[in-house]
Structures
1.
Amino acid sequence: MTSRNPELDEGAEAGSETATEADADAGDDAAVSGGSGVETATGAGPDGGSDRGGDAIVEVEELRKTFGGIVAVDGATFELEEAKITGLIGPNGAGKTTTFNLLSGFLQPDSGEVRFRGRSTSELMRPSAAEDRVWVTASGITFGGVGASLAGAAGASLALLGGAAVVGLGFGAGLYYGQRGVRERYLESRPQRPHRLAEHGMVRTFQITRELQEMTVMENLMLGPSDQRGENLFQTWFRPNAVAAQEQEIRDRAFEVLELLELSHLTNEYAGNLSGGQRKLLELGRVLMVDPDVILLDEPVAGVNPSLRENLMDRILELRDQGYSFCIVEHDMDVIMRLSDTVIVMDQGQVLTEGSPEIIREDERVIDAYLGG
Ligand SMILES: Nc1ncnc2c1ncn2[C@@H]1O[C@H](COP(=O)(O)OP(=O)(O)OP(=O)(O)O)[C@@H](O)[C@H]1O
Ligand SMILES: [Mg+2]
């Protein structure tokens, strides 16, 4: 149920990609859906509760990020497996949070790449072809307008018809090439939009802000998708019926998510009245609203009391069993060891080692890294 339709993503992106990229992507997507559709025991670890997975859904390759002279992430390479929980641990300053921010698109790497279902996330986060067209058209009109005014002004002041034509042509050509140069530079440096990554199915949780605390649980959930996807004002004005249908769809999904997280009894409660653990569940609920494939969690149980912790962890394990893939950064070793199918240990910006919780627990290098850090 959680598997998003790769064909939809394909269609949405096709316009902004070259033919070769699109071909390669189609191949990857076919491979992925083939793998996840077949429910065999292949790739299921003895510790994993899911019989899906084994395929890498996210690949991180040689990521590097520096802040001034500090190398925060130094060539990290690892994979997140589909329908598994991957724990990311390491001593203070190891680069976990930076890696997390690179994965979710909130930071751009100096070099290296994150691929989601075989496609570069920096490419997935670029504005759509439609946004590009709006920009290019607007710049064309601006440059054209400026060119015409300059030519007109030059013509008037010279009061010579032939002179005006020559000057006008000169300005026109100059402006055309200028506009092309600006456009090319813009296309190269197009800003990344993390929310577009969420549309493709890779999301991170956010704290419930003070503003959201003044809303009910249901309102928080209903805000989720529009938050992640960006409101479309055009639709609200011109297609009210479509908007109403969409709202009903979102409400239905919210009820589904509430049931999934066992929060139904709190539907109309103000988020501000929730306990720490319930609030964490609501944060999770907000990202589940967009029916993601990969969920990135930064310290999901921090500040949650022990009994609610159990509840929160059980929900995460259940979601994993339903096919959601997780990457979790967490300081609490017991939590990481209980939740993770695979643990990745970072130290000084690099992957020190990775393996099952049982193996990592015994690893001398890991013990040293923590004691040394
Ligand atoms: N915005 C920033 N500007 C400058 N240095 C930074 C920035 N963010 C992180 N760093 C540095 O990069 C290194 C890695 O930091 P990061 O926060 O990723 O580590 P971490 O593993 O999350 O640590 P912790 O366990 O303490 O949360 C540290 O030396 C940190 O001081
Ligand atoms: Mg951190």
Note: The chain has four domains: 6-35, 36-123+193-201+294-373, 129-188, 206-291.
2.
Amino acid sequence: MMRIRLATPDDGAALSDIYRPAVADRTTSFEVDPPDAAEMARRVAATLEHYPWLVCEDAGQVTGYAYASRHRERAAYQWAVEASAYVRDSVHRKGVGRRLYESLFRVLALQGYQRAFAGITLPNEASVGFHEALGFSPVGVYHRIGWKRGAWHDVMWLERRARKSCASRFAADAAHRPHAGVTRRGDRRFGTDSAVLACAAGRAG
Ligand SMILES: CC(C)(COP(=O)(O)OP(=O)(O)OC[C@H]1O[C@@H](n2cnc3c(N)ncnc32)[C@H](O)[C@@H]1OP(=O)(O)O)[C@@H](O)C(=O)NCCC(=O)NCCS
């Protein structure tokens, strides 16, 4: 059975495996050296300090992941995130990405984040279709912004707002800062990790 949960550093090997083709064989990612398990574990731990990183698990195997990251560093950008999803090639178009993003946006809304952006190296029909299906709309295209595999590549940017339903619970806090600690286990402001995940899985909020 498919389930969505927070990633842990122990997922590093599976995440590295899923991400590798996007780096080594394609222009999907603008990284050029595939990060190994230890590096992915480090990224998970660093991301969870402020943003959700979720995995989809099916019969004990991690089939995909989605996470949010900072859009830009300057302070006024703190409410904006970038969202990314990667699903194992063997299980594309089976609803894994949708489940991950639906949960990701519930957590982001719970944390008070306002806007999400996604940058997609063109062409990537699957990712553009996926993001549009999940509520993103096009912003514009950065032309010839990246050089990889012997060619220049365009990046299309899309945006969407955070889902409303969970956000309303914490609207009063929205004027201050995003709730970074929500993805840490046992955060006192939000109760237990399981409460966050219940929201992320669509059972609450
Ligand atoms: C993009 C990606 C994450 C989508 O994940 P997925 O699990 O295959 O997507 P889902 O099955 O949840 O699809 C949800 C919806 O997205 C859209 N979609 C998904 N794949 C699509 C495709 N190949 N073409 C057009 N639309 C597509 C559809 O509307 C789909 O709903 P439907 O199947 O009911 O029609 C996956 O293709 C992937 O990992 N690609 C390689 C890595 C990548 O490009 N990541 C994005 C980086 S910007």
Note: The chain has six helices and seven strands.
